Amino acid sequence: MTSASPPYADTGLLAPEWALSGAASETSDHAYLRALLDAEAALTRAQAALGLAPAGAAAAVTEAAVPERFGIRSLAARTADGGNPVIPLVADLTAAVGAEYGPYVHRGATSQDIMDTATMLVAARALAVVLADLGRTEQALARLAAAHRDTVLPGRTLTQHAVPTTFGLKAAGWRSLVLDARDRVTLVRDALPAQLGGAAGTLAAFRAYGTEDEAALTRAYAREAGLAAPALPWHTLRTPVADLAGCLAFTAGALGKFAVDVLTLSRTETGEVSEGSGGGSSAMPHKANPVRATLLAAAARRAPQLAATLYGCLAAEDERPAGAWHAEWEPLRDLLRLVGGAAGHAAELAGGLRVHPAAMRRNLGITRGLIVSERLSAALAPVLGRARAKELLTELARRAHAEDRPLSGLLSEVDELKDVDLDDLLDPAHYTGFAGSLTDRALERP
Questions:
Q1: Which of 121, 267, 405, 406 has the CA that lies 20 to 30 A from 202?
Q2: Is 166 helix (H, G, I), strand (E, B) or coil?
Q3: What whole-number distance in Å separates Cα of residue 408 and Cα of residue 412?
Q4: Cβ neighbours of residue 136 closer than 8 Å, sequence gap 6 or more
Q5: Of 203, 149, 241, 205, whose CA–CA distance to 439 is shortest?
């Protein structure tokens, strides 16, 4: 028996939505440790840049702040004592830096400054993965929309055939949602702030250590960390976390819409699309399950509850809260992982999706021509009168079902319609409205 990971490692055994994704590596315990160390090193460098610490201290802390030098399991074991991993990490980092520059580690900061800044770093790095995969997804969907601009299939409302539409317009709609998600994620990522407030959000300790311009220190810290500079310490002003929750939940839902459409269209009795490489069944050799769409749908169902927990943490008491801050860590990481994995699955799903126009044409005929009844109502009203046209079509629809006859045959028996071009009126491809131009307009969006 061999083991590729240490005992108790979170390998994603029960999380196929995100296991092995780029977002998984960017949100791992190792990634969090790296971010915590990056936050500590950035703080010392910022103070050195303003003459508040020796240049040697900045170099020493940065050199020591390497994740491989610290034991994650040891840190985890000691985290419960103080309630967060920063406390044992500061002790270990101080020892690693040495006696000369150790006093400059974490100087003036509180644990939440480092934890919040590290969380923003983890989020920024994970969102970079999400954005790359959203880009791949929208490009693949744009190709599908352009290729199938005029491919007709049944439009469905309340689970029933409604009027004809085009697969190009459907794919363009999926892409529009992906672009909406991209824009929201980009806006949130670019605004992710560093956190610096000290014990109670006043930066009092930094002033005691000689800081004369708190704004300059905050800007320097944010610059060193690679994050935005906040207007205020946000220990209990949790807008950044709430914004993350919102954009991530929206992204999961947007990708979920794509997924549930694929699941519906790929049913055996529908067969209008299929995944490029379906998954197998443990019991049924004939099956090729739409696994990627399934995982996307699962992610869309889980994300809102995780976001709800994060929104609940907005009610954070005092200048630093007990519990509200701590309650964010796991659901935010789960949400980043979930959406990061979903974006990767979506890119693969869109890139490999197989479209079956023959099945779409076949399904257009399932209602024996009734899919264009709306068009017939409008076209026949001037010939028969509005009331007579509605009465006739209602009766013929009933007969089409009862007698299992096509609507075209029934219409041809109506004397009043002998001079009407029924073939044109009954062609679903001639009743897609502005689907083509809507698709073109949607594809103009960069």
A1: 121
A2: strand
A3: 6
A4: 347, 350, 351
A5: 149
Phi then psi for residue 291, to 5 deg, are -70, -45
Q: Which of 125, 136, 189, 320 is catalytic?
A: 320
Rounded distance, CA 232 to CA 239, Å? 11
Count of Cβ atoms closer than 10 Å to residue 402 Cβ = 8
Q: What is the pLDDT of residue 280?
A: 58
Tell me what pLDDT residue 409 has: 94
**Is 281 one of the annotated active-site residues of the chain?**
yes
Whether 320 is catalytic is yes
Burial class, 404, CB count within 10 angstroms (exposed 0-12 / middle 13-18 / buried 19+) = exposed
The rounded percent of the chain whose pLDDT value lies above 70 is 96
Catalytic residue among 74, 267, 277, 281: 281
Report the 10 Å Cβ neighbour count for 231: 10
Q: HSE, CB side, 13 Å, CA atoms: give it for residue 262.
A: 30
- Nearest CA to 337 among 22, 50, 80? 22
Dihedral over Cα of 3, 6, 7, 9: its sign: negative
Continuous segment of H or E residues that includes residue 16: none
**Residues of the chain below pLDDT 70:** 1-9, 278-287
Contact 142, 221 (CB under 8 A): no
Give Cα 73 distance to the centre of its chain.
31
Distance (Å) of CA 347 to CA 56, 420, 437: 46, 48, 26
How far is Cα 4 from Cα 26, in angstroms, rounded to an integer?
Answer: 19
Determine the Cα–Cα distance for residues 411 and 256; give it in Å rounded to an integer: 42
The SS3 call for residue 233 is coil
Q: Each residue of 393-414: pLDDT tens digit?
A: 999 999 999 999 999 999 999 9
CA dist 48 and 296 (Å) reads 46
How far does Cα 173 stand from its chain's mean position? 16
What is the chain's length?
446
Count CA within 13 A, CB hemisphere, residue 171: 31
The reported pLDDT for the residue numbered 419 is 87
At position 272, the amino acid (one-letter code) is E
- What is the per-residue pLDDT for 283? 54
User: Which residues, in sequence order, are bridge partners of residue 164?
Assistant: 154
